[in-house]
Design goal:
The chain is mostly helical. It has one domain: Ribonucleotide Reductase, subunit A (Orthogonal Bundle), CATH 1.10.620. The two termini are 17 Å apart. The protein binds fe (ii) ion (2 copies). One fe (ii) ion binds next to helix 4 and helix 7.
Length: 294
């Protein structure tokens, strides 16, 4: 990639190419083939993963809107091309999760009202400056990069899940790691470094932490309620173990929040996990999914 040589981004400098893919997953009829609690550890982990999916189309839309606003402010070709690939990856995530969410709706999950609530929560940042909004999106990408890393580094999290469902989360996790630095680089390319950028970045982090701390339990609760398990202590114990227990999805992630406060924080400097992308390319993503430049 010539652009990468003349104006390298942090991602392409590491030999990682943000690659738009369109896997075309189909979940039609799966409700007759997999149990309602499709995670082997029960309805708790199932509800948590479904909460991530139910929120995905709205959250991805938030990232896409932000990247669209940032990209015209970037003069160099390589970061703009990478930003464009980012947009296409996030659009594919939104679409594939929407397909999975239609399966959830057939199970009675109130996906549309969950999406409305997430939109209302995100509206909290609508009245703020566009920089603060970008900072919330950037922090969101940091968390998704962490979830992606957990999925890639701890395959046991999805062990025993029907492969047609597991591959959705694995592919999404893979691409979140692949593009984890794109919004971060785009924001700094547009706004520069300095105290103002740092202060906005940290404010965005804490808004994102509060939004997630409200949204994830509340959406999980509504999904458990739709499955008749809202009062089921066993389900909640399973969910908490899946998220915070040994080897859990968000176990020890306070370190990611702490590291984000460093003045010299950068997603790849914080965690150079590109080896997963090389090692897992053949098992998680299919070259046939790649889409050429439009
Ligand atoms: Fe995504
Ligand atoms: Fe992302």
């Amino acid at each position: 990639m010539n652009d990468c040589i003349s104006h390298p981004t942090s991602t392409c400098r590491l030999g990682v190419t943000v690659t738009p893919r369109w896997p075309g997953f189909d979940f039609e009829g799966l409700e007759h083939e997999v149990p309602r609690a499709w995670h082997p550890a029960g309805i708790g982990p199932t509800a948590f993963l479904e909460a991530l999916s139910a929120m995905a189309p709205v959250v991805e839309g938030f990232f896409i809107e932000d990247a669209r606003r940032l990209l015209p402010r970037i003069a160099k070709e390589a970061p703009r091309a990478e930003g464009d690939a980012f947009l296409r990856q996030e659009a594919a995530h939104a679409s594939m999760h929407a397909a999975f969410n239609r399966l959830l709706m057939r199970w009675g999950v109130p996906v549309e009202s969950v999406a409305d609530s997430v939109l209302r929560w995100l509206a909290v940042v609508d009245w703020t400056s566009s920089d603060l909004r970008s900072a919330v999106a950037m922090a969101g990408e940091h968390f998704l990069g962490e979830i992606g890393n957990a999925i890639l580094s701890r395959p046991e999290l999805l062990e025993g899940v029907d492969p047609r469902i597991a591959r959705l989360f694995r592919w999404h996790g893979y691409e979140e790691v692949e593009h984890k630095a794109v919004l971060f680089d785009a924001f700094h390319a547009a706004r520069g470094q300095g105290l103002y950028t740092y202060a906005v970045r940290i404010a965005g982090l804490w808004i994102a932490v509060v939004l997630l701390a409200l949204a994830l339990p509340s959406v999980s609760y509504r999904i458990l309620a739709s499955a008749g398990a809202a009062q089921d202590l066993h389900a909640w114990r399973g969910l908490i173990r899946f998220v915070f227990g040994r080897g859990g999805m968000l176990r020890g992630r306070w370190r990611a929040v702490a590291a984000y406060h460093r003045l010299d924080f950068h997603p790849w400097r914080y965690l150079d996990n590109r080896r997963f992308l090389a090692e897992l390319r053949d098992t998680i993503v299919d070259p046939a999914w790649e889409v050429g430049a439009r």
